[in-house]
Amino acid sequence: MEPTETTAASDSSDKSPGDDAYAAHLERSRRVWDRWSDWYGLSESDFEPIRERAIDRLALESGDRVLDIGCGPGVNFAYVREKIGSAGHLVAVDYSPEMVAKARARVDDHGWDNVEVRRADATTVAFDERFDAAIATLSLSVMPDVDSTLETVRRHVAPGSPVAVVDVRPAPSGPARLLNPLIWRFFRWYANWNPEQNVLASLRAVFDECEVVETNLAGVSYTAICRTADSRETRPSGPRDPNR
Ligand SMILES: C[S@@+](CC[C@H](N)C(=O)[O-])C[C@H]1O[C@@H](n2cnc3c(N)ncnc32)[C@H](O)[C@@H]1O
Fold first, then answer.
1. How many domains does the chain have?
2. Structural domain boundaries, residue 51
3. Which of 27, 28, 29, 140 to mutate to test the pocket of ligand 1 (most atoms within 8 A of CB)?
4. Which atom, in ligand 1's list, is nearest to the CA of 144?
5. Choosing a second label site near 131 at 20 to 30 A (CA), which of 50, 58, 62, 163?
6. pLDDT of 229 strictly over 90
7. pLDDT 10s digits, 89-132
8. What is the pLDDT of residues 179-214, one digit of tens each?
């Protein structure tokens, strides 16, 4: 079945951490992304302006703690690091050992001692800290259980903190829909894309607020900003908690 905007988030997954289908998807992701890691540099700048606008929407400040989910070779690091400075902390997670090696090499090359790259499954990873913001660019839709991944993200961001997601989907409307079968197969082959998932529906199910702030490529690419409700304050407009 091709996913649509109306596909229910939680009913659409047949994979959960611990089951065989989940493990098979994760292992295929590892193989696919290990393989593409050598070539990713050829296309990583294609989405750069979209990624940077998504990061701008996080309204990051010096000293912020940021989580990057499915970081690949670290394409977001320089821009996030520019915003949070040397006082901030960027923690990035990726499941592909080859992507992680490339991300760590980027960190070493720049001498960023406040950027940490962890090789982990973003769905089941646990952190000791809570983050002021999170970003997932082109990564959630390749994961086996998006609802569970987003629950993990939700647990690790402070209430009211923004989560920026850039992702792709079949064209939602217009003539580009005719290309959906091709788009679908291409994503599946290229990225181990998960056709049973609807990332936007999952975002809306897991977070209290979620807004699509930008679309590109006939709606195939979108940027969403989500957050949990916070009765005390909501970033970016409110003042920071000095005890965070
Ligand atoms: C299309 S790349 C996106 C990389 C980068 N965020 C970007 O914007 O270009 C997808 C990344 O998600 C990672 N990934 C896939 N499943 C994952 C999982 N369960 N946990 C962590 N990372 C995962 C892959 O290894 C790959 O590096």
1. 1
2. 20-227
3. 29
4. 19
5. 50
6. no
7. 999 999 999 999 999 999 999 999 999 999 999 999 999 999 99
8. 888 877 877 777 777 777 799 999 999 999 999 999
Domain harbouring 196, CATH code:
3.40.50.150
- Ligand 1 binding pocket, CB closer than 6 Å: 26, 29, 33, 44, 51, 70-72, 75, 93-96, 99, 121-123, 137-139, 142-143, 191
User: Helix 77-84 and helix 97-110: axis angle, to 10°?
Assistant: 40
Whether residue 232 lies inside any domain: the answer is no
* Domain presence at residue 129: yes
pTM for this model (two decimals): 0.88
